[in-house]
Design a protein that fits this description.
heterodimer; B: alpha+beta; six-stranded antiparallel beta sheet; 12 helices; 16 strands; 36% helix; DUF5691 (chain A)
Chain lengths: 472, 423
């Protein structure tokens, strides 16, 4: 037992029970410990001397394991103003714009201040929407951190082109690999997917199909209609419904023709009487979500059939009387088909009717060519209640074309106060493209009695403009 | 000298105030504005009818605003300073209300002779109380060691009880030492060893006070400081050791105790190589000194407090900060040698600033550490977030300014190429 351990043991047990031995202490310390006096005082004096002795004599640790070095990043760090803005966002000021900010950084040839990578990594860990842009901007230093900290593995191996990712990565990494490889080398991606498809668990098959279903061939989807898992079968049928030239579409068209006749400016519908094996295989569901079973089958068949199978223009069809079922059933199914098949003529025609739900309207607007969307939304803005348009705006998928952004800002500028538009204003402020950031609502001074949403709108637009200017 | 927006925003008591302050930084909201070398002022049109009258005394800084906000400084003052930082506030003569306010008594007026007598009586009374407290602590520690420290594992609260008695004895240094010791029992396998070291050194401090008149003056000053006696800043400025140099701001650490926030900022003289510690305190509603920005170089004269290892200092006068090059520094062995040399002067030394050059992060089992090229390493202290430093290093060697304490290193700043990074 060393001299120090001896002191510690005596102090723990008490000098009443244990004699203090100082023989083990270093010579220079022992010389300073008084021989007389009470043993507790002697012990504490010796301990104080030893504390100094031990602290002053501290030796460095050895045998530390060096960390593999990150790839060198010689790009300049983003400028100080942009670093300050990042700190503002990290302390709660417009944190919702962090994704856009990272996107701006990505477009420059600059790097993030490395000391902020950990806090961003922690943030993006819980906010999945930030992950991919952050991982890309963080670059090599990010993957390096991802390899060191198990919480941030999502950063590791980002954009790794080693095919081992497909074999050994986690599902997120494999989905990313699949998407990137489909863009870079589609043949290799198809081959990898085809080879391992059968052996993958159902949950993975669903994720892969969701990620790249639009990119795989009809044959692959046709085969997936016979998949073991119901969810995969339904997803495959859903994707095939958007492909009017497929064999699947031809089968659906045949079913449609057997049920529907258009003659004498009237649509006559016969509801299906049974659901045969072929219908089941093509995804017509057994149990209806609502309404009668036979009506549900009809709705499904119409929604999955190519719109061209009707052989009439949408304008003609939409005004025809319907016999044999509720006209609303057909309208809903046509809207679903137009959205799936991205049929512009049908989308245009459907948007002139009044009977669509807001999500349907938003999805149909998104089918239109970018140049047309602004006009249609502006027209809807004139015709509809503010609350409805606000709801539509929230559902409009981004990115928006410039004139759509301007049209929506014009629309907001016309409101002095309206609670219903507040939420839409938040979405519009975040979503309008960069070209709209000098719109008059962002530049002109606010009226003194401006409501909170209006102030927030200009603040957000100004914030976005400034952050873009700082990262030019 | 105008401040930067960054320095202004550092004054905000919380992020919400910073944000609110920014919203006020629009000239349209200010029907009148002005600035002189000593103050900035203006009228801010709020939601009410009459504008708020806002003034900032740049010297302290101190704030004055007629708004009812309990935030300090309020958003109007922050907004005003931001406008000023942008150069949007015109120079003009001080209006009367600012002039009167600037002339207010800032500290108690110097005391007369009778007060000096009273002060001497108070000092004597305190000295005898502290001596009583020290004697009580020595006796209590003797009892503890006689019966055994092992019981403290079950009842560390008795240490808090003794700490409270040391507060009553006006020896806050002994009280805080006991409170730190109270956190040790049961923590980690070597807690008996660490507890014995702490208590033994605390006893030495109490013993030193009992014979303070026999100690050399610098050591006596150190003992008094560690016990919690304060030295008047005016005395330090008047008679403290003065050093003129270009001081590198190596970094700072903020600590919150009860309601008091304290900041210790470490400076290193470029030519003297001497270290200095500038403390800044802020109670509720007060703000910390933000004039020393990490990684800059400040030509200044510092006045040092007395002590065997004089570190604490006041900025007596200073010029504008200039950008600093990457500072020179030493190895891990140099840092340990400096710590040993410091202990020789002040045996209670708990932390010492160091600049380490060419140190790379290494893994030391469970902990992270910093290693010189020769493989000598020191661990990062407990409670230190290693990730920002790791991220800046990328696994490569860099220059790091840190506090070295018994538990290890607490990095304060590091250099990413030429850029100083506050950690």
């Amino acid at each position: 037992m060393s001299g120090w351990d001896e002191l510690v043991a005596a102090a723990l047990l008490g000098t009443r029970r244990r004699v203090v031995h100082t023989e083990g202490l270093p010579e220079s310390v022992r010389a300073l410990v008084p021989d007389d006096g009470d043993s507790a005082g002697r012990l504490l004096t010796a301990a104080a001397l030893m504390a100094g002795y031990r602290r002053a004599g501290r030796v460095p640790e050895t045998g530390g394991l060096p960390i593999a070095e990150a790839v060198e990043d010689t790009r300049p760090v983003i400028p100080a103003v942009a670093r300050r803005r990042l700190d503002r966002m990290l302390t709660g000021d417009h944190t919702d714009l962090l994704g856009d900010w990272l996107e701006l950084v990505r477009r420059t040839d600059m790097r993030l201040p490395p000391e902020r990578l950990p806090v961003l990594a922690e943030l993006a860990r819980t906010r999945h929407a930030l992950r991919s842009s952050f991982a890309e901007v963080a670059g090599g230093r990010g993957s390096w951190l991802g390899a060191l900290n198990p919480e941030w593995t999502y950063l590791a191996d980002h954009r790794c082109d080693v095919a081992d990712v497909w074999r050994y990565g986690d599902t997120d990494q494999r989905v990313r690999w699949l998407r990137e490889t489909f863009a870079a080398d589609p043949a290799a991606a198809r081959e990898a997917l085809a080879r391992d498809w059968v052996a993958e668990p159902a949950a993975n098959r669903v994720r892969f199909l969701r990620a790249v279903g639009d990119l795989v061939g009809d044959d692959f989807l046709e085969a997936a209609l016979d998949d073991r898992a119901q969810e995969v079968r339904a997803l495959a049928a859903d994707i095939l419904s958007g492909r009017p030239a497929s064999a699947f579409a031809a089968r659906m068209a045949a079913r449609l023709r057997a049920l529907v006749t258009v003659a004498d400016s009237t649509i006559t519908v016969r509801l299906p009487t049974t659901r045969d094996g072929g219908m089941a295989r093509d995804g017509v569901p057994a149990a209806p979500a609502r309404g009668g079973q036979r009506t549900a089958w009809l709705r499904h068949i119409v929604a999955a059939s190519p719109l061209a199978a009707w052989e009439r223009s949408p304008a003609e069809l939409l005004v025809m009387p319907v016999q044999g079922c509720d006209p609303g059933v057909l309208l809903e199914a046509w809207a679903a088909a137009a959205i799936r098949q991205r049929d512009v003529a049908w989308a245009r025609a459907l948007l002139t009717t009044d009977d669509l739900t807001t999500p349907e309207t938003a999805a149909l607007v998104n089918v239109l060519p970018a140049a047309e969307r602004a006009r249609v939304v502006a027209e809807l803005g004139g015709a509809r209640k503010s609350a409805d348009l606000a709801e539509l705006v929230v559902a409009l998928p981004a990115p928006w074309p410039t004139d759509l952004g301007n049209a929506l800002l014009d629309w907001l500028a016309g409101h002095t106060d309206h609670r219903a538009v507040a939420r839409a204003a938040g979405v519009i402020a975040r979503t309008v493209p960069a070209e709209c950031l000098r719109h008059k609502v962002a530049v002109e001074p606010l009226p003194p009695d401006a409501p909170a949403w209006r102030r927030h709108l200009s603040e957000t637009l100004v914030f976005r403009r400034e952050m873009a200017e700082e990262l030019r | 000298m105008r401040w930067t927006a960054e320095r202004v925003l550092d004054l905000a008591p919380d992020p919400a105030s910073a944000k609110a302050g920014r919203s006020q930084a629009s000239p349209a909201k200010w029907p009148s504005l002005g600035a002189s070398a000593h103050a900035v002022w203006g009228d801010c049109q709020g939601s009410g009818k009459a504008p708020y009258q806002v003034g900032v005394d740049l010297a302290e800084p101190a704030f004055k605003c007629s708004c009812p906000s309990r935030k300090f400084p309020c958003k109007h003052a922050i907004g005003l300073l931001l406008l000023w930082a942008e150069g949007a506030v015109p120079e003009s003569g001080e209006p009367e209300w600012i002039d009167t306010w600037l002339a207010r008594p800032k500290r108690a007026e110097p005391t007369g002779e009778r007060d000096e007598e009273a002060a001497a009586r108070r000092a004597e009374k305190r000295a005898s109380r502290v001596a009583g407290g020290a004697a009580e602590l020595i006796g209590w520690l003797g009892d503890q060691v006689t019966t055994g420290l092992a019981v403290l594992d079950q009842s560390p609260d008795v240490l808090y009880g003794v700490a409270a008695r040391m507060v009553d004895a006006q020896a806050p240094g002994l009280a805080s030492g006991l409170r730190r010791a109270a956190m040790l029992p049961g923590r980690g396998r070597d807690w008996p060893s660490r507890l014995l070291e702490d208590l033994a050194l605390l006893r030495t401090l109490a013993v030193a006070y009992s014979r303070i008149d026999d100690l050399p003056a610098p050591l006596a000053a150190t003992v008094r400081t560690r016990l919690g006696f304060t030295v008047d800043a005016a005395d330090v400025l008047a008679s403290g050791d003065r050093v003129r140099d270009e001081w590198l701001v190596a970094g700072h650490v903020d600590q919150e105790n009860d309601q008091l926030v304290s900041r210790r900022t470490w400076l290193r003289g470029s030519s003297s190589g001497r270290w200095a510690l500038v403390l800044s305190f802020a109670g509720p509603g007060r703000i910390l000194d933000t004039s020393l920005v990490s990684g800059t170089l400040i030509p200044a004269t510092l006045a040092f407090y007395p002590g065997a290892l004089p570190l604490r200092a006041l900025v007596a006068d200073r010029d504008d900060a200039v950008p600093a090059p990457v500072p020179g520094g030493g190895t891990v062995d140099d840092a340990l040698a400096a710590f040993a040399a410091g202990l020789a002067l002040d045996p209670w030394l708990d932390r010492l600033p160091v600049v380490l050059r060419e140190v790379a992060p290494v893994s030391l089992g469970k902990d992270w550490g910093l290693s010189s090229v020769d493989g000598s390493a020191l661990p990062l202290g407990s409670g230190v977030d290693p990730w920002p430093l790791l991220a800046v290093s990328g696994g490569r060697a860099l220059t790091v300014a840190a506090e070295l304490s018994v538990s290890g290193l607490r990095p304060l700043s590091c250099w990413d190429g030429e850029r100083a990074v506050r950690l």
